[in-house]
What does this fold into?
Amino acid sequence: LLLCATNAAALQLQPAPQLIKRPHQQPRVILTTEQVEKLERSVAAALPAVGQWAAFGGVVSAFTGFLWGWAGLPAAGLYASSVASGTAWALAWDHIMPGGGRRVAEMMGGTTVGVPCSVRDAVAKTAAAAKMPAPAAYIVPTKEPNAFAAGRGRDRVVAVTQGLVDLLDRRELEAVVAHEVGHLKHGDTGRAAQAAAMLSGLSAAKRAGDRMVANKRKEKSDASVAAALAAAGAASSAAGLLLRLAGSRRDEFAADAVAAQFVDAGALAGALKKIEAAGAPRDKLHARAGAYAHAYFSNDDGPSRWLRTHPTVEARINALKSGAPPGRAPPPAWARFAAEAVAESVS
It folds into this structure.
């Protein structure tokens, strides 16, 4: 008892423990709202390209498996290697390696010599409005009224044809250039280059098969492999044309909205009407079997309205009249696609 009483008295004499006061800590911010919104836009912009590559992989895998079962491993290996090498080379040459945009413009016959002042001024003006460095201006000596943008970073270019300069007035020309600057601003040129590389790869398999058919007619085994490769290449090239439809119509509506914002919706509508009425044949812009046709301002190369890469002029003008904000296309492109398909099947 005496020991317990002594310990109790000692505990009462000890001072009470003091709580250590720490300064209030603010919650740690990992991402700001602006960064989250930027990430969402980046993911949304990447989805069409992901869909393109997934569809491309499905096409190549399907035809490789078909050739393996029908003509054996040599034909399947030749097909897969031809597609892979053709796609990789075109993608590296046109998009990944420095100077890709300039090479694409020069492939179409474009040059920086003799570019009209109206084109240079329009490119500089719309690029400043878009708050981006001015791309290089190119002129393509052809009567076809058209334009396109290519490249990324410092290699960005905007090319217009001489036919376009002769056909449009200054305000309409500025609107078309602003449309192409809109493609550069949205990063559409990268997806266009990827789609062109896929088409080039699928066409490479067809060309390899055609050459083998021409050279190996005397040997039955080689001829059968060559015929199988040529048939698969032709079929996959036709299927590959559908890859250009992934996001292309939506991109055109979004670029039209940028032109309406920076220049004038009426001027762009007038340019669309004049270009549609011109009907000039395609010559220089058909380089590399038209692999970049989906990147042009105007393109009506599809066998049917709902298989074309671009929306109709009427649909584009209606979207301009509706006053859609940049990057949005009312009604959605997929709804327009379905409506046009149903209307054509009924008619």
Summary: Strands lie at 136-140, 147-150, 157-161. The mean pLDDT is 80. The chain is about 65% helix and 5% strand.
